[in-house]
Amino acid sequence: MASLNDVSTEDLRQVLAEVEGKKPTQRVMATINYLEEDEATLEDVAERYGYAAGWLSRWLDRLERLADEPFEEVVYDEHHSGRPSELFDQQHDKFVEALHESPEEVGYDAPAWSVPLARHYLAEEFDVEYCERHVRRLMSEAGLSWKTTRPEFDKSDERAQEAWQDGFKKRDNLDDEYTILTIDQTRQVLSTLIYAWFPEGERPSLPVTGAWDSIKLLGAVSDAGETFFLPCTENFNSDTTIRLLDALQTEFGEKICVVLDNAWYFTANAVQEFVEDTLIELCYLPRGSPELNPAEECWRQLDQELGNRLFDTLDDLRDAALSGLNRIEVPDVFTYLCP
C-alpha cells in the first residue's frame, strides 16, 4: 500500500473544508484518521465509516498514484471527459433559471441552493445524473458562487426602528387586558455546525448530513415571560399563521397584541381577513429588524442546544428541539420592543 509520505494532514484539513458529498468527505476524514493515529489499522479506520479495509486501501493507493494532481480533483469520483451533456438546451436554460430563484420557488424547503440540492433537482426534474463536481461546474457557469449571506438587519433603518418603538410605547388602542406576544419562525435541519470552543491547534471534525429535511417551528414570547411553540409539518404559509393565532388566543385569551415580522405568510390577505372579526391586534416590526424581536433570542439559544449534533431522524430532532426549548432563558419582551 502507498506510504503517503508527501501527504500533509494540514492540507487534508483545508480540503475537508471545501469538499462536498458523503463519499469525498469520508475519504478525506478517513485519510486524516489513518495518518494521525499511529496504531490505527486499515480495518479500524474503514469500519468507522461502514466499509471494509479494502475500501480505504484502494482510496489511499489512488491518492498516492495521483499525488501530482490537485487533491480537490482526486477526491471526487473520476469523471470521464468527452461525455456529452444529458441536458437539452431548453432543460439547461430551465436549470439556470431555477438556480437564480429561491429553491422554495421550485418546491424545496431550503433557503439557498447547494450542490447536493441542485444535483437532486436535476435528477428529479430531468432524470439526469451528474457527479457533484460536474454540478458545481454547472452552477459556476450559471453565475453562482460560494459566499456567505449577510444578516438582514444590516440593512435596517435605525430611524424607522426608533419611530416604531416610540409608537409602540404609547399603544393608545390597547387596554390593560391585552397580552403582548412576539412571534417568529425557525427551521432546524438534521445537522448544523456552529461555533464552539475547542483546544488551540486542533480542528475537530463532527458528523453532518447533506440532507435538507427539516422541522419547522412557530414560537411566541409573552410580556409575562411565558412561551408557546407550535411544530409545523408543512412549509410556513397563511394557514399555519392562522392556526398559530387561534392557538395563541386559546392559550392567552382573546385579547392579544401580536408583534411579528413582515414574512409573506404573516402579512397575507387570509391572515388579515381572519383577524378582522377578532380581538387580535397585529403589530408589524420595521422591515429588516430581527434584533427587535425577543423570539429570535429563543432560536439563538435553541441553535446552541442543537448545534454540532447529528440527529438520525426528524422525530429525534423534534424531540430534542422541544426539550431544549423547555430549558431556554426566556427573554424580556420590553427590553427588545421599548428599551
Automatic annotation (TrEMBL):
Residues 111-166 form the Winged helix-turn helix domain. GO terms for molecular function: nucleic acid binding. Residues 191-318 form the Tc1-like transposase DDE domain. It comes from the Archaea. Pfam families: DDE_3, HTH_33. This is IS630 family transposase. It comes from Halorientalis pallida.
